[in-house]
Amino acid sequence: MSEKFYIVPQQKHDALVSAAYQHRGYTEDEAAQAARFSAFASHHGIRTHNAIKALHLDHLFGSATGGCTPAVEVEKLPCRFAASEIWNANKKLGQATAYEAIDRACELADEYGIGQVSVDNAFHYLWGGGYVMEAAKRGYIAYTNCTAALAEVVPFMGKYPTLGTNPHSWGFPTTDAVGFPIVIDWATSVIAMGRVQQFQREGTPLPANAAVDAEGNPTTDANLVKALVPFGAHKGYGLSLINEIVGAFIGGSLPTLRSREIPAGEKRTPAFYFQVIHPDAINGGAFAQGRDQAGNVKAVIEDILGHGNENCLLPGQLEARWAERVVKAGGLLFSEAEIQAFNEIAQECGEQGWSLAEFTCESV
């Protein structure tokens, strides 16, 4: 079944998003980074973590409630390891912090073969796949995880949400092999809360066994969701635990206090972790049939997708296809419900709203 989308010029999108962030007290540079990230997400069809979601999170847990502080600087803390950096974000805007962190990890990987940046006192960076995708497009293997802004996932065999959706994101430089970077990016819940909010806007039911209501019963009604469940039972639960434990080593807060009122002396902030590997740093050189590293990567992927598996999708392929549609359309693609949400944002910050009549539309 096709869906109608309106084609919004990216410049128009970026201008409104930047104005909205500046209206909330963010600097021009922070607002530009937020708009850049939102456009990149929408360019790749990430409707769960676009500007609507970003500004909604900021309203609920960010600048409006003290969870994120505009116009602050990241503090770089002493570290005795040359390829590692430890940062105190001071609750700076997550997108701006994450862009700086992934760039720095790439610089460290250029020098040492591998680089890592850990970030404490952070505010949620939204779609982790976007940061590793950009690094992969530049030729690096990249990974990030974070603790989510809110504990809204019930542990396996539990009944109370004490985990975040806690995503893991890997990016691989495979454009030469398959035409796009492979990006393996997933929340550790069956679906992300951003998907629930998207389904609320669109009036769409959730998949079965993805969420529970206030009584702990499974529900497919997005309006009744009170908590999410891990994917793959104990497996998704274990992957979610990784983020919480890594965050704990960095300095992260107790999950059930995150983005909430807290007792004196406690913290309420998420933590980020970034790692970037230069492919040359893991190049063993002994490839079969005289292949080089890039050729071997291509051969491995072709073998996986052979033997009758030719119709299988690679992670990142749907995002690449959406990006092709956006380029062909000449603008970002938004549904009518999303246009209405942008108009609410425009009203909040005193900007002119968008009329459906000013945009051409297409069905996808």
From TrEMBL:
Q: Which UniProt keywords apply?
A: Oxidoreductase
Q: Name one Pfam family in it.
A: Ldh_2
SUPFAM superfamilies tied to this protein: L-sulfolactate dehydrogenase-like
Domain of life, source organism: Bacteria
Protein family (similarity comment): Belongs to the LDH2/MDH2 oxidoreductase family.
PANTHER family, A to Z: MALATE DEHYDROGENASE (PTHR11091:SF0), OXIDOREDUCTASE-RELATED (PTHR11091)
What is the name of this protein? Ldh family oxidoreductase
